[in-house]
Request: fold
Amino acid sequence: MRKLLAAALCLAASATGCGATVEPSGDAKSSAVTLTNCGRKVTYDKVPERVVTNDIGITELMFALGLEDRMAGFAMPDDKKDLGDVPWKDGYDKVKWLSKDRLTKENVLAARADLVFAGWNYGFSEDTGFTPDALKKLGIPSYILTESCRNGRGKSSRGVMPPLDALYTDLTNLGRLFGVEKRAAALIDGFRKQIAAVRTKAPQGADRPSVFLYDSGQGQPFTAGRYAAPEQIISEAGGVNVMHDVADSWTAVGWESVVERDPDVIVICDYGDVSVEQKKKFLLSYAPLRGVSAVKHRRILALDYADLVESPRNPSAIARLGAYLRTVRGNR
Reply:
């Protein structure tokens, strides 16, 4: 499956670093570039040469664009499964793993970073003091992951556009910043075609299975509202996110709301110290869920964390979830 995924992603991203002919990353323009990032105009005076990234999805956006030679390092936990069998293995081989936690001012300064690419709850946090404003005081510019943009409804509320639009926005902006617009456009075009192919086969109307995304938690489940990437991953695959009415991205809800919505399928987010099997065992044995359709019929599918946050893995996740939902449609 991993080899097939790698081949599919290379095909979808034929203008990126998967053995195809690409624009050299050194072709980036030397003049200032102004981008719209989280609703604000931001001007970058020069093309970054020592980018540091936080978390797997953000790091792989850079790799997918063939920009590993513009990176000074990345930070992320070492709970993201085997990285040696992903389409961007070369990027992981070339770029330094700075921290198995999250970025800090100290490791950013030690890396002599000239751009920090992170997101709210993907590195940036008011609680830790690691914010774009704090970095600006150090003379280091930032780019904020669009999926994580704060939307004004609260200090931690995120999401300003549909998740796939956020992915395409970031690829387009990065393409402009690094002078690799053709690569970015080809990657986006490939992703759109891959998703469109899934959409043509997807269940419609009342046949669309309802899906609950289970990230973690026993007292309260952590899940995805309508502004997190799983919302659109589920809908494009032919399902309905049972937490669509929650106007937030990643957030905690009550188990009673899960029971009330009675999902046909549960998707487990595979990451962290709690294994998929442990999460599945809990869901199947938790008494309040006994009458939920997904639990009664054991319709539980696991997707990797990197599939479910904004990343270049989103289209392949849609394809795999779509194939699973088509099997559910006839067995409800």
Observations:
- The chain has two domains: 2-191, 204-329.
